Give the backbone structure.
Amino acid sequence: MAQAQHETSLKPDRLLHPAVLFPNISAGAVNGILIVIFQSAYAALIFSGELSPFIARGIGFMLFGAFAMGIIVGLTSSFFCTVTAPQDAPTAILALAAAGICANLAVSGTPEAAFITTIAVIALTALTTGLVLLAIGTFQLGNLIRFIPYPVIGGFLAGTGWILFSGAIRIMSGYKLSLVNLPFIFQESILYKWFPGVAFAVILYVVLRKVRVFWIMPAMILGATAIFYLILYFLNVDTLSASKLGWLLPRFQEGLSWQPLSPAAYQDVQWSWVFQETGNMVTVVLISVISLLLNASGLELIARREIDLNQELRAAGAANLVSGLGGSSAGYMSLSLSALGYRIGASNRLAVFTSAGICGLTLFFGPGISAYFPKFLLGGLLFYLGLSFIMDWLYYSWFKLPKGEYFLVLLIVITIGFMGLLQGIALGLMIAGLLFVINYSRINIIKHTLSGSTFQSNVDRAAPIQRFLREKGGQLLVLKLQGYIFFGTANSLLDEMRQHARQAQDPPIRYVLMDFRLVNGLDSSALNSFAKLKILQEAYGIIFILTGLSKDIQRQFSTIQLIGDGGGFHHFQDLDHGMEWCENQILAETSAFGEQLASPETIEFLSDLLQQTNLDPAAKIEQPDRDFSRRILKYIERQHFTAGDYLIRKGQSEKLMYIIVSGQVTAQLEDNGKLIRLRRMGAGTVVGELGIYLGMPATASVVANQDCEVLCMPMAQLRKMELEAPALAADFHKLIARILGERLVNSNKIMQALLR
């Protein structure tokens, strides 16, 4: 079958073409008949027991809701094939509310008061549902569905299946499904009333899973109805007798009637009974929101087009308001009927209006039609829906869900069966929340655990200094944190810190740097764990450095005096500056690197630099290498820069390479007044080499942080040296390669540490 076209792709002169008209009318007619049957079944579920004398009026209320919702959503939906009517899940819950209201009849009240009160509960629930849907759609909150735990939704659907399952048995047998009533339900005189419906539901379920053709369900419903009347014919039983025997719905002399409650009727509403059903009413509202969003998401996958969830919420909200004013039940988009109409070939809104029109015609002009629906057929359809939910969420989910989530679904279903739908959902949400806390606390909030041996700051230092920092790197522990930190994960972090502090290692950990750049929040209960870090600080002499703190986290840490005045912790704007501070602390304790490369004599400086960058640091530099230092003076120039001077500006075309003799410089990006530090360089390092070797303009600026002495090699001088003294130029390139190689070694070590 060709896929249905989008309605906007049809030209006006094609809308009445038989190839377009017939599929739309067919889809609408099939859906309309199914809606009438289902609404009759839903009414039979709600208006049963003591309310059964009012089933004709109940069917009228339900059909009015289907008619009104179909027209309103057909005009306002974002999808041309959206079928909306009172649905099974709200009906199942409202049936519980109706049963609760009827239970009060034993104490006080009359059947008429119970009926009017039931209609008041149904109407008030629909009105509340409409207001909530309108509010959610108006405030663009359609994505709320993403915050409902999946097992809770599965448990709710399976529990709804059980309610439909037991409700179907009650409709067909007249007995509530319970352990006490099982002997009565299996009596021979009762068995024949409900067993055909169960058999029909099982056959329907099996066939629809095997054969996915749009006309199968309508054909089986018509076939079952035909077989029923053939049996009546051969048994010589007329419809009146069949109705008395309980095989058909009661024959209503007055036919269907839709009469919304008048203001005077509200005087008979038992409002105390209404308030007792508040829990069920709230459940209907929640279920309607969740189900609508789930159904719309499913229809998107079937039709392969986006649906405006917020528009669907607003459309369904308006429809529920009108439906509630007319005394009908809450409703929303039907995924099965919408998909059915789409697959039959509906291509414009005519299909939706046709199905709504059939509901209206049945309500206003065909009042006796419901009396010819076999009761086993209505119960069987409800049983089929319940069986579908139970099979999907109690059988097939065993193979799809993790076992922990599956048992949560099972627990919710058991709770719903013994205690009620609202209690089951509440228990499911509480357990899901608890499981989330437990599982989330197992997530390691430490993205990387590094040490100073493998991770260093973006500060280029002379080769011996870099090697020294790697040797002493065991004193520095770096923890890069991530995610949201709450009491569970914070306690795990504290335990890990205790283990590091108590480990006997040489050298012992003296600095712990925690980077919060990837932390998106901190729970107030987690502050207690961070406050306990002060105990570790005092007991083991560990210095804690906090970096990348957001303003909110800074404020939270300030409240426990972890940072700020009186706090014993240091904090820096980012990890790089924190690492630099720690490295400077380690170097400050070792005088051997104070001024090692800051010789005032250029020749001595270059000779030392050659020695320090040699691949074998223990090897001695021979006299020809010292001659190299003297000979190169012809091509380089010693310059002085004061703090704040630019050595290189971004975009500069002049090619200059500097070797830092003393002081520090910073390579940085300048963007609209914002400075981004790329790398800081000290004595014995090189800057500007990319411009020399790649011949490209400067990609960043280089600024002196303090008074600096540098050796400057212009590109012109380098080219001159290559022509006049090729061997000297080769030695110079080798020197630069060694300096850059040391930088590359450090970068590779950092990369390897981050990839572990």
Residues 315 and 463 are 71 Å apart (CA to CA).
